[in-house]
Amino acid sequence: MLDFFDRLAARAPGALAGRRGGEPVRHAELLARIRAWATLGRRGAGRRIALYHEDSLEFAAALAGAWLAGKTVWLAADALPATCAALAGEVDAFWGQFPAHVAPQLAAAGDDDGVPWTAPAPDFDALVVFTSGSTGAPVPIPKRLEQLTGEVAMLEAQFGVLLDGAEVLATVSHQHIYGLLFRVLWPLAAGRALHAERHEFPETLAPALAARPCVLLASPAHLRRLPGHLDWRSAAAQLRAVFSSGGMLEAEAGRHAAALLGTVPIEVYGSSETGGVAWRRRTDGADEGWTPLPGVAWRADDEGQLSVRSTQAGAGWTGLADRVGNLGGGRFLLRGRADRVVKIEEKRVSLDAVEAALLDGGLVRAVRVLACPGKDQTRQLLAAFVVPSDAGGAVLEWDGKAALNGRLRAQLAPAFEAVALPRRWRYLDSLPVNAQGKTTAAQLLALLDGAPAERPRHPAVRLLEAEPARALLELTVPADLLYFDGHFAQAPVLPGVVQVDWAIHYGAIHVGPNGTFAGIQALKFQQMIRPGQPVRLELVRDTVKGQLQFRYFSEAGAHASGRILFGPDQAC
Question: How far apart, in whole angstroms, are the C-alpha atoms of residue 216 and residue 168?
Fold first, then answer.
């Protein structure tokens, strides 16, 4: 697919390029925006451009326009102040939706200087991406155009037949290599419609998937959190495939997603340095092996560490920090990361092994263990960030944090020396994730910096009106609410599932007890609820129908509404 730009130029003007807000965007509109961005690039000095735009169609136009203008694009993971400060010394201009203080540039509508459409050479320095930061500080990785087009060709060769006629929807951002390739470059090259919006909430994702034949791009964190109370049956009927990348998908999370979405996720393993490496689809839940993608060769060194060679990885062999085993037939098994072995007081400790041992005991649902400086800054120690299981949560609730700390340390003691036991513990409802569905080291370590042991899970509440079957409350959402973690780095918003949970919780308190949850009808989310924003919650109990109606609203208008159904045998 080195003819990427020829394909774009030749596509029929009336062809469907994508959708924005559910409305079609034609290819002629996309080409006009590409030319406008190219004009902006040709008129500007410098060759290095930082690009950030949340709209995938506009981002695609800016990216292609920058390349036509001979610009190397630095792909910013976000537009936060620290990111802008880091990029300021590396780039000549900021394009898109950056803060005003970095003077972002936007292409004017209809602006086209008429310069001929000339594609860059295959060895053009097209892109600089960053590692995810999951195990340390993000590192810039340069990419040539031929590496990116080679990756797209490989994906089409392996999976294209599955996606015939499918439109592309995503829960992941295109500001990361996985989202960039799967959500923007691959659809552009193959002529598939891509959606401008990223679906941050399952309440909007389910109906969007149900609208027409589609493919879903997700992360393990997003698939793990799909709520079972939503009706996914129509979505399952339209889905051609579900992709998961950006981390390892736990077998249980894969089964959960498959049960709701009607298709087993295709897991893609790779890295920012190498691009895609291998894939698997655990249809029986047992086969953990990985099959290399077309054109990818792999080998293990004497210590069992993986190296790969492919067009998208660049010249020669590229080493990765993952340990592998040979399954035969060209396939391999991942055995954990080599770079997750640390030295604690001269003792080598595998962080993967500590995590696995914690998970095996039944008190922990999810965990990350990291090395961090001790209070005196002279030595390293381990910190464990733990999502307790139901059993672990019971210990935490009834006996306290010290008791659960002791239980988990005792669980580790038979297999690890005392210096390898975590010294600091943080108990969380869920591991925080960023827009790519990644849990980064920086996010976790920030929880150690004076973070309180407990974060609020409920708003400040004031009862305004009370009747036998109706109540009106005023809720003010605290800025440090636990549920803002991972929703989202750019602008925290209250998750839809939390809004429903609060309606059930306060409904039971103010308008009568609930029965057995049976589903939700007429669920709508119109506007986001942000930190510190006062909203009103109206609750109305219909005892005959076994329903609880709820409505969130404020001076800004309606935020959310729906009817929660309870089983007739227990409904009041």
Answer: 6
